[in-house]
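Standup notes
- DV: blocked on the single-chain target, sequence here:
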Amino acid sequence: MTSVDKGFIISKSKFYNGLSNNNQKYFEHRVHCFIDSHQFISRDGVHITRELKLLIAATAIQLTFGYRSYLYSRLDTIIIYPEDYFSPFGNQQHKGETNPKYKTVVLSWKDFKEGIENSNDNLDLGLHEFTHAMHFSFLTERTSSARYFLKHYKLLLNFMEDSKEQKKMIESGYLRAYAFENQYEFLAVLVEHFFETPTKFKSKLPVVYSHVKKILNQ
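- DV (later): unblocked, structure below
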């Protein structure tokens, strides 16, 4: 990673800035590997710049940084639209989506950037979609990283089978309603909260916070 690349990451990634010097070097290496391992495709005139690749890669690596298997086995291609777009798969307007069948993540560049710039509203499109990509990858891998992830994810789901804990979570008002769409969205929303408002998360839902921390191995 060049000094220009590093300076850009420093200016944009709170996660990177919180790492030790040694871990920053690992992070830089992983970001470089992620960029080299994926195809970035423009839609509707988006200019694929080095900065765009760095921002997307840094978000993806932030999620898997706790794992030895840090690249996404169910992801080859990242498609970027300038803003929300019509999805033929969902048959509606989308800001982002993850399709493991086609090994693709699709992002609205406008909403992706807003997720990074507004770092405490618990809405981060990049973290959300790459959580799905990580989840789908680990579901099909046979690595130690996948086994660890799935073990702790299952423990979270088992914990949430308790009706009292479900009620406590809902009554806290901390998570947006979309978290309860399904198990995949539940995890993605939890991860957004874990990185954006960790202190509040730990205070309001300490056991759930602990489970997410273990799931991410961070």
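- Follow-up: The two ends are 24 Å apart (CA to CA).
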